TrEMBL record:
Membrane-traversing stretches: none
SUPFAM superfamilies: NAD(P)-binding Rossmann-fold domains
GO CC entries: mitochondrion
Domain NAD(P)-binding: 56-202
Pfam families (UniProt xref): NAD_binding_10 (PF13460)
GO molecular function, one term: protein-containing complex binding
Organism: Mikania micrantha (bitter vine)
Highest taxon listed in the record's lineage: Eukaryota
Protein name as it appears in the record: NAD(P)-binding domain-containing protein
Amino acid sequence: MSRVIHSRLTLSRYSSTWRGRCLSTESSKIDEPLKLEEAETVHVPPPPSEKLLVLGGSGFVGSHICKEALNRGLSVASLSRSGNSSIQEPWVNKVQWHQGDLLSGSSWKEALNGVTSIVSCVGGFGSNSYMYKINGTANITAIRAAAEKKVKRFVFVSAADCGVINYILQGYYDGKRAAETELFVRYPYGHVILRPGFIYGNRRVGNMELPLGVIGSPLETVLQHAKPLSQVPLVGPLLTPPVNVTAVAKVAVRAATDPVFPPGIVDVHGLLRYSQQK
Ligand SMILES: NC(=O)c1ccc[n+]([C@@H]2O[C@H](COP(=O)([O-])OP(=O)(O)OC[C@H]3O[C@@H](n4cnc5c(N)ncnc54)[C@H](OP(=O)(O)O)[C@@H]3O)[C@@H](O)[C@H]2O)c1
């Protein structure tokens, strides 16, 4: 048994992420039982040079991502048209707030200076052409600029397919998928696409807080066990479980900063699974 583990550790020497830890084991003593703590996740605070830019950090999901990233010791900046947050909590003062419109001019690109990873929460609703622009064009512009500035990782908060609703919100979904395609091309190894369904949590609208969890939380509990039903064409996607905004924020920050987080699409069930990991 110990020999098997030993050979796995020897193989894993070739992984740069684990190199330091593997080389510190006394691998010549093959008959001694090796400690399984080698396989455990170690939470090391990110180096101070890590800077996360949240596109749309003033919004519902973006503000939770800013807060989660600060809690994880990152340096955090946000870019949005309003340029600030309506939330009055102490953590807000630790975010570097940039004002700029991804669909207008290029001065917003200054916000990319020194940034190592990006999470984009830019999106919205309106006419089909507006939805395509805000969900698609704005994000495509950001992805291209980030790639030019050599930002290492780009996480995109996209959206799960919604069956028949896709036809009604065509500009929204076409825009999301166009941005995803751009991300595959520009960030083949450094992208993560999150595809949540309905995101619940306390949502601020003006001076009011809407407790969306009153509906979202029980629905999540019921629907996460109905995965086969969600695969029924057209209507199945309507049964996609809602997900808590804090879970989305946790996975987004991890995807943006953990070099071994695999690139690709994370669906709702993946979001729920990753968010339950420590
Ligand atoms: N909430 C959900 O249930 C849900 C479900 C699935 C997917 N999503 C996706 O998750 C993302 C975040 O959703 P959310 O509910 O947090 O939306 P939100 O509250 O409306 O936030 C959108 C953010 O994007 C910024 N923004 C919009 N247009 C911009 C532009 N041209 N340039 C720069 N910033 C811009 C907004 O700030 P300004 O208005 O100040 O610019 C705001 O900070 C969206 O892409 C959405 O499609 C949300």
